[in-house]
Design brief:
Elements lengths: L11 H26 L4 E2 L3 E6 H7 L6 E11 L3 E8 H11 L13 H26 L3 E3 L3 E6 H12 L5 E10 L4 E10 L1 H10 L3
Antiparallel strand pairs: 1-7, 2-7, 3-4, 3-5, 3-6, 4-8, 7-8
Length: 207
């Protein structure tokens, strides 16, 4: 069978499976975040969509919206990229939770300690997500060290668009709302496997 699938013609069963992968991954990531900050974290059922790159920035508030993006390249049986993205307000809230309220400024630039905390949050969340995907599919997935950028959404999303636009223009977006008893924030997982990796994921699950 051809290992290149047409993501524009994906059937409903395959789409449901990709959505379920998003649900399980986001749930495990939320559990990991809860353990990391030693506090209960609640999560709403994620919204999962297969979108074109050009649509992604609109989901997070527009191409000019400042965001924190934490990017990983994927290797092993699955090749591609994964990104965890939050707006600045959500990022500050998570830093506050992790550092026990030590973060004071609501507007200034992140300090080196706060950037390090954000990197660690991204690392833990993405690691939990990829572990669940690996366990579900029995595929080996390794990730690079995280690369963090604080920039406009359009600029950050241009990195995977340039890298993978030549082999496909679809990304799996998992939008989830999570938080403590005080407030909830939105986070966005963006999974961008190669076309061959989509095929590997689906065939590993018998599709």
């Amino acid at each position: 069978m051809d290992s290149r699938i047409d993501l524009n013609k994906i059937n409903s069963i395959q789409y449901d499976v990709l959505k379920e992968i998003g649900n399980i991954g986001a749930g495990n990531a939320t559990t990991a975040l809860s353990q990391m900050i030693n506090k209960r974290v609640n999560m709403k059922v994620p919204k999962v969509d297969l979108l074109e790159f050009k649509e992604l920035s609109d989901i997070v508030g527009g191409a000019e919206k400042p965001v924190v993006g934490i990017l990983f390249t994927l290797d092993g049986n699955i090749n591609g990229m994964m990104m965890f993205m939050m707006d600045l307000d959500a990022s500050r809230h998570l830093v506050n939770l992790l550092l026990g309220g030590a973060y004071v400024s609501e507007t200034g630039e992140f300090s080196e300690m706060e950037k390090s905390a954000l990197n660690e949050i991204g690392n833990i969340i993405a690691g939990a997500y990829l572990s669940s995907l690996s366990a579900l599919t029995n595929l080996t997935i390794t990730s690079s060290i995280p690369y963090m950028a604080i920039d406009m959404a359009g600029a950050i999303l241009s990195v995977p668009a340039i890298e993978f636009g030549k082999i496909g223009d679809k990304a799996l977006l998992i939008e989830t709302e999570f938080g403590d008893e005080i407030r909830a924030v939105n986070g966005y997982f963006i999974l961008i496997p190669t076309i061959e990796s989509y095929y590997a994921i689906l065939t590993s699950l018998g599709l």
